[in-house]
Amino acid sequence: MGYLILAFIVLMVVWTCWVEPRWLKIRKISVKLNTSLKRPVTLLHIADSHFPLHLKTLRRFFDKLTAFDPDFVVYTGDMIENDEGVPHCVEALAKLKARVGKYAVLGNHDHYNYSAHDVLAFLFTLMGRFFCPKETNKVEKLKQALAEIGCRVLCNEAVHLDLEGEKIHLIGLDDPVTRKDDPAKAFQNVDGTGIKILLTHSVDVMRKLNNYPVDLALGGHTHGGQVIIPFYGALPLKTHSRLGRKFIVGLNRYQRALTYTTRGIGQGKFFSFRFLCRPEAVLFEIS
Ligand SMILES: [Fe+2]
């Protein structure tokens, strides 16, 4: 009996630490918005790579994603874990194809290099107190490096695109987790026409956007919970959604907007295992 328990523990450690985090799921989702597009818009959604961690795995994942040729590649934050991740992130994103453009928003890990002390302090955040780590990353350097490969980082701003006669507003919020989001600024030039796609590190921000037009909100941050307990779901420590537990992963509806929270493509340094929650990249077909 003792050997069986030991074998089970070893199997679980191998699975959660080595197998599942290296097993990418490319999810394909079709969404129908309340507008009439002349042709479907395709969009590859990536989040939470946390470069330079798990570099070999992430390079393999991005190589797989070069097979797609969507209209847009969107990256909803936690691109890097620290400044050392910048060249690796840029190299990976440069490989991807996008017919119209590549856009990104910043997450909490893009702004801050978290220490073990910060993670402990994060527990207070869960109790309603706000906390920001001391060590900041060089965000301007990240933005500049991404701009050089044609990826625009949207910090509380929107781009208004004409796609074969269809107006598309891509609205990018700066990180809402560390309260850098400014919806009034981001939406100031968004009119009532076309489709409005919100890029945000956390779809939790939808709580603040009741008076703003959003058709589809894309986010990450929760990593889908990373560890899913059968018949229970995600562990509360990795979910931290005030919008509601169901918003920590997948496609949901909040008022008139569809929301999607991706499981993300990587993991952070303090919680780098996964169980029943494979890393993912999502290919959307929007019509
Ligand atoms: Fe993350």
SSE arrangement:
Blueprint: H1 2-19, E1 25-31, E2 41-46, H2 55-65, E3 72-76, H3 86-95, E4 101-105, H4 108-111, H5 116-126, H6 139-148, E5 151-153, E6 157-163, E7 166-172, H7 183-186, E8 195-199, E9 216-219, E10 228-229, E11 233-234, E12 250-254, E13 257-261, E14 280-286
Parallel strand pairs: 1-14, 2-3, 3-4, 4-5, 7-8, 8-9, 9-13
Antiparallel strand pairs: 2-14, 6-7, 10-11, 12-13
Helix pairs in contact: 2-3, 3-6
The chain binds fe (ii) ion.
Residues 48, 50, 78, 107, 109, 221, 223, 264, 268 line the site of fe (ii) ion.
Characterization of the model:
This protein has seven helices and 14 strands. It has helices at residues 2-19, 55-65, 86-95, 108-111, 116-126, 139-148, 183-186; strands at 25-31, 41-46, 72-76, 101-105, 151-153, 157-163, 166-172, 195-199, 216-219, 228-229, 233-234, 250-254, 257-261, 280-286. The strands form three sheets. A six-stranded mixed beta sheet has the order 1-14-2-3-4-5. Strand 6 and strand 7 form a beta hairpin. The longest helix has 18 residues, at 2-19. The radius of gyration is 18 Å and the shape is globular. It starts with a helix and ends with a strand. It binds fe (ii) ion. Fe (ii) ion is lined by residues 48, 50, 78, 107, 109, 221, 223, 264, 268.
